[in-house]
Design goal:
There is one protein chain. This protein is of the alpha/beta class and 141 residues long. It has a single domain, classed as P-loop containing nucleotide triphosphate hydrolases (Rossmann fold, 3-Layer(aba) Sandwich). The chain has helices at 10-21, 37-48, 88-93, 96-100; strands at 2-5, 26-30, 62-68, 74-81, 105-109, 123-130, 133-139. It has a seven-stranded mixed β-sheet with strand order 1-7-6-2-5-4-3. The structure holds adenosine-5'-triphosphate (ATP) and magnesium ion. Adenosine-5'-triphosphate is lined by residues 5-7, 10, 31, 33-39, 109, 132-134.
């Protein structure tokens, strides 16, 4: 799957992303500094019903967001930003495997830093800037 979109298109694209993602849980986001990873992840969380992604500290390794599914059950989305880690062991120490294998949705920025920790069925997402927009490719393997 592939989408090209502006900032203002993002809410609509996020809805479509979830339709195409099926029951995938772990998403690894690839893309250079400023490619739009955090922006898109925030929109994906919002589309699920998360209320307050904006208030989360950007320096946290693990952000834990809550939303309520259509049956009213509390669900979690983990947003992992691994930009600052130097080696996989730091991610392990921080408890990242508990998130990745929890069965909850996980959005991982800079996932290339933990190649050996990602579940086999991780969906890879690549974001590339194109003429003031972004191209997003979803690779479900
Ligand atoms: N679809 C889009 N179209 C145009 N601009 C966008 C789009 N998505 C994000 N941007 C802009 O790109 C900039 C960087 O976005 P963002 O912080 O989400 O990138 P990032 O990939 O998370 O960066 P980092 O690698 O620093 O974590 C922001 O100014 C944002 O408004
Ligand atoms: Mg970011």
């Amino acid at each position: 799957m592939e989408w090209i979109f502006t900032l203002k298109d993002i809410p609509k694209i996020a809805e479509d992303f979830w339709r195409k993602a099926g029951d995938a849980k772990v998403f690894a986001f690839h893309g250079s500094l400023g490619a739009g990873k955090t922006t898109f992840i925030a929109a994906l969380c919002k589309a699920k019903g998360v209320k307050d992604t904006a208030s989360s500290p950007t320096f946290a390794l693990i952000n834990d967001y809550v939303y309520y599914d259509p049956s009213g059950n509390e669900q979690h989305i983990f947003h992992l930003d691994l930009y600052r880690i130097r080696e996989e062991e730091e991610a392990v120490q921080a408890g990242i495997e508990d998130c990745l294998y929890s069965g909850a949705i996980c959005m991982v920025e800079w996932a290339e830093k933990i190649p050996d920790l990602l579940p086999e069925d991780t969906v890879h997402i690549t974001l590339v800037p194109v003429e003031g927009k972004r191209r997003l490719v979803m690779d479900r393997g």
